[in-house]
Amino acid sequence: MKILLAVVPSFELRSLCFPSAGIACVKAYLRKYRPNDQINTLDLRTQPDALEIWRPEDFPQITIRKSFVSDIYELSIISSLINNYKKTMSLGKIFPNLDVIDKWAYDRSILDVFIVKKLEETHKFAVKHLIKFGGYDVVGFSLYTSNLYLSVLMAILIKISYPNTKIIFGGPQVTQSDSTRELLLKSELADFLVLGEGEQPFLDIINSLEAKEEPKKIIGVKTPAQINDMDTFYSELDLESLPTPDYEGIIFQNYKHKILSIYSNRGCPFRCHFCSEHSLFGKKFKRRSPERVFQDMVYLNEKFDTNTFHFADSLVNSSDEWLYEFVEILNKNKKNFLWEGYFRAEIPLELIKKLKSAGLRRVILGVESFSQETLDKMNKKKLKSEILETISGLVENEIHAGVNLLVGYPGETEEDFLTTTKVARDFQKKYQDRIKYIRFPARSYQMRPFSNIYNVYDKFGLSAENWMKLYDEENTPEDFKSIFEKTLYTFSVNGISINETLHRLQMINQIKYINIMMNEKVERFYSIYDSEE
Question: What is the pTM assigned to this prediction?
Answer without folding.
Answer: 0.94
